[in-house]
Specification:
Elements: E1 5-9, H1 16-29, E2 33-39, H2 44-58, E3 64-69, H3 73-83, E4 88-92, E5 94-95, E6 102-103, H4 106-114, E7 118-122, E8 134-138, H5 145-158, E9 163-169, H6 172-178, H7 185-207, E10 217-222, H8 226-236, E11 241-245, E12 249-251, E13 255-256, H9 260-267, E14 272-276
Helix pairs in contact: 1-2, 3-4, 8-9
């Protein structure tokens, strides 16, 4: 799979130069074209500012186009993604006021709900660019799980990742139904081990269809509140990137309804976040 057309929502912020440098590097890694969108006034001054940032960030020549939009930021960025056939949109996450943690703001949430492409939220962009050395993948059942693991392996090879952690939830309902009130503690633990083994086997079957030679992969089965456990696991592993699959859109008008586990992650991002949208990922 590959991202052929990458978009960047850019504003005149203190991190604009750094996030542009990140976008240029990612575009080069995927041999993709890069399109910038700025929702604001199109003036000679603003065009000159963005062109100067491109020169500073790109170094070697890179194919970049610049588009200006007027109106509601989320609506205009969504139109930009559709009209420009964007495969991956890059944007910055916001830092919580007076806190170290990051979160996804209202504009980004609206984009995530309705976008027809993947989305990369960068929490702390750096001019030197971010390396994804520890990647965590949310491997919950969805139409996107195989693609999420596939792109994790692809990025892992590009960034020479130390670890790729594939996290899958142990369904507590299955455990409670499998263990009756009369079972002994040993029988309960055996049942739990068997269910964990089943979940690991499911991931191994998916991995068998994905090139991952040379990568160190850890399959982790967690129990409890999945969003909380996923976020805390990413923190413990000092993850640079968390990859999740986008839930399907229920109705085109209303967009996606994110489950509570993902809402928890969005409220307090442990690291950079990549949301995979299967429809717009080009398979290679």
């Amino acid at each position: 799979m590959n991202f052929q057309r990458i978009g960047l929502a850019i504003a005149f912020s203190p991190t604009a130069h750094a996030i542009l440098a990140e976008a240029v590097k990612i575009a080069r890694q995927f041999n993709a074209s890069l399109a910038l969108v700025h929702v604001g006034l199109k003036s000679d001054e603003n065009q000159a500012k963005i062109k100067q940032m491109i020169i500073g960030a790109a170094g070697d020549p890179v194919q970049v186009s610049i588009l200006f939009r007027k109106g509601n930021p989320a609506d205009e960025i969504l139109k930009f993604c559709k009209e420009e056939k964007i495969d991956l949109l890059i944007a910055g996450a916001l830092k919580k006021e007076n806190l170290i943690g990051h979160y996804i703001g209202t504009t980004a949430r609206n984009i995530m709900r309705k976008a027809n492409c993947s989305l990369l939220m960068i929490t702390t962009p750096a001019v030197a660019s971010t390396s994804f050395k520890n990647i965590v993948v949310n491997a919950e059942d969805s139409a996107y799980i195989q693609d999420a693991i596939g792109i994790a392996c692809q990025l892992g090879k590009l960034h020479h990742a130390q670890w790729i952690h594939i996290v899958r939830e142990l369904k507590l309902l299955s455990l409670s139904l499998s263990a009756s009130d009369q079972c002994t503690e040993e029988e309960y633990e055996l049942t739990k081990q068997n269910l964990v083994r089943e979940e690991i086997t499911k991931v191994e079957e998916m991995l068998s269809r994905i090139p991952h030679e040379g990568l160190k992969i850890n399959i982790k089965v967690v129990a409890g509140k999945s969003g909380f456990e996923l976020s805390k696991f990413a923190e413990r592993k000092h993850a640079d990137l968390l990859i999740v699959g986008a839930p399907p859109r229920k109705f085109s008008i209303f967009g996606r309804a994110f489950p509570r586990d993902l809402e928890y992650v969005f409220a307090d991002l442990p690291c950079n976040l990549l949301m995979i949208n299967l429809k717009e990922v080009t398979r290679g």
